[in-house]
Amino acid sequence: MPIKIPNNLPAFSTLVNENIFVMADEKASRQDIRPLKVAIVNLMPTKIVTETQLLRLLSNTPLQVDITLVKTETHNPKNTSQEHLVNFYTTFNQIKEQYFDALIITGAPVELLDFNSVHYWKELCDIMEWSKTHAFSTVHICWAAFAGLYYHYGIQKQVLDKKMFGIFPHKINAINHPLLKGFDDIFMVPHSRYTGVKMEDIETNPNLALLAYSDIAGAYIVADRTNRQIFITGHAEYDRNTLKDEYMRDVEKGIPIEVPYNYFPDDNPKLTPHFTWRGHASLMYSNWLNFCVYQETPFDLTKLEPLEY
The domain 3-239+276-303 belongs to what CATH superfamily? Predict the structure, then answer.
C-alpha cells in the first residue's frame, strides 16, 4: 500500500529502506483515486517510534492511504521535540469537522490511573464520541482499548497481579470474522500492560464479540457487531526489540520486572529475540483496512451513518 506521508517525516526514510511503498504528498496528488483517510491519535510518549510501527503495518495492501497524525491539546509530550509536533501533527479541534474512513487511537502509559485522573480524559472522550459520527471504523490499542470499552460500554478494566509482559499464544474465537481471515489457529502477540478486562464482561455484552484470546493473556481482540469499533489489548505493532528496550529500561531504573515471557531464546536477555508475530500483525491490519474499511466505507464520507448501539 502506498502510504501518503510527508517525505521529511522520520518514518519515511526508515520505511523506504525496508522496501515499503511510501509516497510523498506531491506524487500522491497526481493519482486520480480517492485514498482512504486514516487518522492516528498518537498518545504514546515516543511518538516517532509508534508512528513508524503503525505506518509499517498500514502498508500491505494496494490501497492508497492518506495519514493524519493527531495529538492531544491537553497534554504536552516531553519525549518528542516540539519541532516534530509542529511539523507533522494536528489537534482534534483542527480536524473535528472532517470525516475519516478509519481512526487509530494508540495506547498510553497511564493504565494504572483511574480514567478520570488522566488529565486528557475529557479530550479523549470527545474524540471517542466524535468517532461515532466522523470515522467509519476505529481501532483502539492497549490502554485505548480499555478506555474505549469503558467509555462506550461501561466495561471496567481490571488491575493484574503482575505485568502481562511477553509474547503469548492466542486462539481464534470467531473463525469466519473478516479481521482474522488467513490467521493460523495459534498465533503470537506481544503484550505489555498492567490491566485487562474480564472475558465474561465481553461475552455477556450483546453488542460485542470476542474475536481472539489467550489462555494466559486473556481477551485480545474485541469488536462491536458492526466492525466499526475494534479493541485490541496487545501490541501487534511492536518491533522485534520493543519489549527488550522496555525490559532494559526498567532494569536500569531498578523497577522490579520479570524477563518477558516466551521472548528471549532460553530467557537470556543477551540473545536476540525471535520475531514471531510480524506476519499476523501485518495480516490483521491489512484485513482491517480491506474488509472492515475499504469494502464498507461510503465513497462520500459526509454520508457516513452515525454509529448507534
Answer: Class I glutamine amidotransferase (GATase) domain (3.40.50.880)
